[in-house]
């Protein structure tokens, strides 16, 4: 009987090999999606033009089109990885399966901070947008957690989701109120508010890249601490973990990622909700594997959504934020209705 149990139980080495193989497969899929992103658009291009554009040549219209799509693809990958990873971190920090930068209002808070800086303080420096967005994301996260912690039971998943939804609606209304009297900035803000990567440039990427790299590093270093927090605050403290510090460091990484992604692309929703759930079904709850999976899957999802937006509305295109909302809203309803959501 014991031999049968040992045979049925997966060996740790085999499970580790399976997860490493899945991570490599995700990286290959992401590479394929990147090539698809630079190839698909209003103008069709062949592989010779793609190779020539990657080599720095822009002698033809097709090569010029590929050179424009390259920063768009890179930004979509970075933003998708940032949102997927920050969603996994937020779900781990709050132990809330519904946590997401959009649902908790963090993206909306970052957007409101950028709008206030733009409309009331005449903010014009590109680097300032990232700092202001990160500040807005951080203050919103603290505010939502404080509201959700009130009353009996502390910060339960339901109260955090309700506090985040209410904050997101309120901040969206405040944003509109700030923009309405300012016709000079209203047009550009509306397209940014939807969320997209259509106007990506290498200058924008260089602006947000240091903040994203810092956020990625902080989040990946926090993987073991999140595993301890998943056991509960009392047990984590008994294992020698400083719960408040661990939670604060992980949240800082998520805030850096959310703020930088929002400053560059606008408030894109549902990526941070869908990706961690799907990855958790594949590799389980160990954050040492979950976080890299979430980063690669988020990057692939946002690139795929961007490509679909170009195909569906040809010769025009749908912003990536609209595509993720179409997919993410039914997914959110499914998670809420799923009876076994606590097991995720």
UniProtKB/TrEMBL annotation:
Record localization: Cell membrane
Top-level lineage group: Bacteria
Membrane topology annotation: Multi-pass membrane protein
Keywords in alphabetical order: Cell membrane, Membrane, Transmembrane, Transmembrane helix, Transport
InterPro entries: ABC_BtuC-like, ABC_transptr_permease_BtuC
Gene3D superfamilies in the cross-refs: ABC transporter involved in vitamin B12 uptake, BtuC
Pfam families cross-referenced by the UniProt entry: FecCD
Chain ranges passing through the membrane: 20-40, 73-90, 102-122, 128-148, 160-180, 200-223, 244-270, 290-311, 318-336
Similarity comment text for this entry: Belongs to the binding-protein-dependent transport system permease family. FecCD subfamily.
Name of this protein: Iron ABC transporter permease
The species this protein was found in: Paracoccus aurantius
């Amino acid at each position: 009987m014991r031999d049968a149990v040992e045979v049925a139980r997966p060996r740790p080495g085999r499970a580790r090999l399976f997860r490493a193989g899945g991570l490599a497969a995700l990286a290959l899929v992401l590479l394929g999606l990147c090539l698809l992103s630079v190839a698909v658009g209003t103008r069709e291009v062949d592989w010779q033009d793609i190779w020539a554009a990657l080599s720095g040549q822009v002698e033809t219209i097709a090569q010029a089109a590929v050179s424009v799509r390259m920063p768009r693809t890179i930004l979509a990958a970075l933003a998708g990885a940032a949102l997927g990873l920050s969603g996994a971190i937020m779900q781990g920090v709050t132990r809330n399966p519904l946590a997401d930068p959009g649902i908790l209002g963090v993206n909306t808070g970052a957007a409101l901070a950028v709008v206030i800086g733009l409309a009331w303080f005449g903010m014009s420096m590109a680097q300032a947008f990232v700092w202001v967005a990160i500040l807005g994301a951080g203050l919103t996260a603290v505010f939502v957690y404080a509201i959700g912690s009130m009353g009996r039971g502390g910060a339960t998943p339901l109260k955090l989701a309700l506090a985040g939804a209410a904050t997101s609606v309120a901040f969206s209304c405040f944003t509109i109120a700030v923009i309405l009297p300012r016709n000079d900035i209203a047009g550009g803000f509306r397209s940014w508010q939807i969320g997209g990567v259509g106007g990506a440039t290498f200058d924008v990427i260089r602006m947000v890249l240091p903040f994203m790299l810092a956020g990625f590093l902080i989040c990946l270093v926090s993987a073991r601490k999140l595993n301890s927090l998943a056991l509960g605050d009392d047990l984590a403290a008994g294992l020698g973990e400083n719960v408040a510090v661990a939670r604060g460091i992980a949240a800082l990484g998520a805030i850096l990622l959310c703020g930088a992604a929002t400053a560059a692309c606008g408030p894109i929703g549902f990526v941070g909700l869908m990706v961690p759930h799907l990855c958790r079904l594949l590799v389980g709850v160990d954050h040492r594997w979950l976080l890299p999976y979430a980063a690669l899957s988020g990057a692939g999802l946002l690139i795929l959504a961007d490509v679909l937006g170009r195909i569906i509305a040809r010769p025009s295109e749908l912003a990536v934020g609209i595509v993720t909302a179409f997919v993410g809203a039914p997914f959110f309803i499914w998670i809420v209705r799923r009876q076994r959501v606590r097991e995720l």
